[in-house]
Specification:
The chain is of the alpha+beta class. The chain has three helices and four strands; from the N terminus they run H-E-E-H-E-E-H. The chain has a four-stranded antiparallel beta sheet with strand order 1-2-4-3, with helices on one face. A hairpin with a 2-residue loop joins strand 3 and strand 4. The longest helix has 17 residues. The mean pLDDT is 96.
């Protein structure tokens, strides 16, 4: 089982993500990013690739897709906040979008 990010590691792990467009959600221990693609097929294809990793890691995003835009929020419900799993999945999402 994973655990919520500690205060000691939080900034170290979140800072690189914040530089790539992730944001801390106000009023909730979660991170959010908007991904924009060239078209619906590219957006949906990216979601499919992410879904394979999310299922493999048993860690699933909150997300929605409208045409070429995908809104993503990551938090670990079991621990009530951001965990190393969220950081791992955010990094994977960025890499797959790259």
């Amino acid at each position: 089982m994973t655990e919520r990010l500690s205060e000691e590691t939080r900034d170290t792990l979140l800072d690189p993500l914040l530089k790539t467009g992730w944001e801390v959600v106000q009023g909730r221990d979660a991170i959010h990013k908007t991904f924009r693609f060239d078209n619906f097929v590219d957006a949906f294809g990216w979601m499919t690739r992410v879904a394979i990793w999310a299922e493999k890691w048993d860690h699933h995003p909150e997300w929605s897709n409208v045409y070429k835009t995908v809104e993503v929020t990551l938090t670990t419900h079991d621990v009530g906040g951001v965990s190393p799993l969220d950081i791992k999945l955010a990094r994977k999402m960025d890499g797959l979008a790259g």
